[in-house]
Amino acid sequence: xxxxFDVRAVFGTDRPVLGGMLMPPLLGAPRYGGSMTAVVDxxxxxxxxxxxAGVRAxxxxxxxxxxxxxxxxxxxxxxxxxxxxxxxxxxxxxxLGINVxxxxxxxxxxxxxxxxxxxxxxxxLGDVLATDQGIIEGCAADLVRLRSxxxxxxxxxxxxxDCKHAGPLTRRPLEVIARDTAxxxxxxxxxxTGVDSDTPPTExxxxxxxxxxxxxxxxxxxxxxxxxxxxxxxxxxxxxxxYARDWDIDGPVLPELVSSFxxxxxxxx
Length: 269
Fold this sequence. Notes:
Distance between the termini: 29 Å
Number of helices: 9
Structural class: alpha/beta
Strand order of the largest sheet: 1-2-3-4-7-9-10-11
Organism: Actinophytocola xinjiangensis
Family: Belongs to the BtpA family.
Protein name: BtpA/SgcQ family protein
CATH topology: TIM Barrel
Order of helices and strands: HEHEHEHEEEHEEHEHEHEH
Number of strands: 11
CATH class: Alpha Beta
Radius of gyration: 17 Å
InterPro entries: BtpA, RibuloseP-bd_barrel
């Protein structure tokens, strides 16, 4: 299966920087602050900074909801996430992505279809991973069918390859996992990560995945900072997430960090 995902057509550039929108705890989460108005205001403020600093997309992630539910987000999480996503969609026309932690694929595609988002991130699309939430199995067959049933075939699927904060139950070559994720599981784009959120993927892993799936876009999805900008030159795009907050997941987005990072990526040959 060839992806047919035209990165420039979607993001307006050949190597976009995606803004990782790390949302504060939502309704029902252990650390929820008691006001969805405050959550929306915080996310909208972060989005305004990200957009002003030059990112080409916004990826909403409910990272404040830890410890994460494994693969079926509760109703209150879905409701709260949809409220936030709707407000971000109204405020900004940039491509919007949805990632419901840890691997709530039904919620992700449902929210994306409801608010008019452009892509979903699925941490475990294929394979079986041992994670800090337990064993998570791939969801590709059900996800692709649900996407079709919702009339949401335009929503792209970003699938992680050997996702961070996890490990495979059986060790397979990375290039085989990449090909399976792209061509058997029908991911429109692949995401490569390091071992955790603050660690970027290795150069070797990026090169391996790129070589394995020459027809499918590959994005970096963890640990990127000014120091690691050269890695972005090896692939089709990257995310700026925790670094945008100077590695403080609960801190504010810092415009100077985001702007400097975006300019450095855009300057790559």
